[in-house]
Amino acid sequence: MVRSNPRLRVADLPALAALARDRGALLVVDNTFATPYHAQPLKQGAHLVVESLTKFLSGHHQVLLGGVVGARDVVEPLRQVAVRAGLVPNPWACWLGVEGVRTLAVRLERASATAWRLARFLQAHPKVRAVHYPGLAHHPDHPVANRVLERGYGAMLSFELPPERAAVNRFLRSLKRVRLVLSLGGVETTLSHPATSSHRFLSEEEREALGLHEGFLRLSVGLEDPEDLEAEFSEALEAL
């Protein structure tokens, strides 16, 4: 992945591409978080790129679509399998996906700028233990992000509250507009709780080893006014 879920680590694509070439392997990149607006892995040596149109590309939580991009000779075997298995979306879903992609650049420009602002706001708040966003100088992959990503650092970030379910529940219940949603990438700002969603299949020990304690939250930033979002998070944090 260009940006891992949910700790927002950034992969060094040119280095991975060189390693793949040396070993005769194919490099496949999941570009869901970065999207083509922030990263174009094919130009950095990847052979295949997986994109989720369900999320940022369509941007409105209206379709379930995915895509694979690469050279024809690499993609064609995958296309044949998809056709034979019936993994072909209907025309209406395709139309909705394409219509959403038309506004991708405008949406990501706004959402990424707001995410960077929120990351700095949360980092400075005394009730927030840590913020994970590659645009912040303290992020372990900040230098890599400056080389791999373009036009900003994306609309996804994660932050840590006290590692207690009760504290997280008080925070979530104090929010008025931002909702807990399993998906991401829409025009609305949403939160997810990895310990009880994307990483619930791991044991508590395994989650702790990854740093995904009960207070870890992932934020997908939408198109709301950034001042409104800051005000809402500030009020909710006071409930801790």
> Could you give the count of β-strands?
8
| Global outline | globular
CATH superfamily of the largest domain: Aspartate Aminotransferase, domain 1
Structural class: alpha/beta
Here the CATH topology of the largest domain equals Aspartate Aminotransferase, domain 1
- What is the name of the CATH architecture of the largest domain? Alpha-Beta Complex
Cofactor: pyridoxal 5'-phosphate
Protein name: Methionine gamma-lyase
Organism: Thermus brockianus
Keywords: Pyridoxal phosphate
Describe the fold and architecture.
It comes from Thermus brockianus. The protein is built from 10 helices and 8 strands. With 240 residues, the protein is α/β, with parallel strands linked by helices. It has 2 domains: 13-101, 3-Layer(aba) Sandwich (Aspartate Aminotransferase, domain 2), CATH 3.40.640.10; 104-237, Aspartate Aminotransferase, domain 1, CATH 3.90.1150.10. Helix 6 (104-124) packs parallel to helix 10 (226-237).
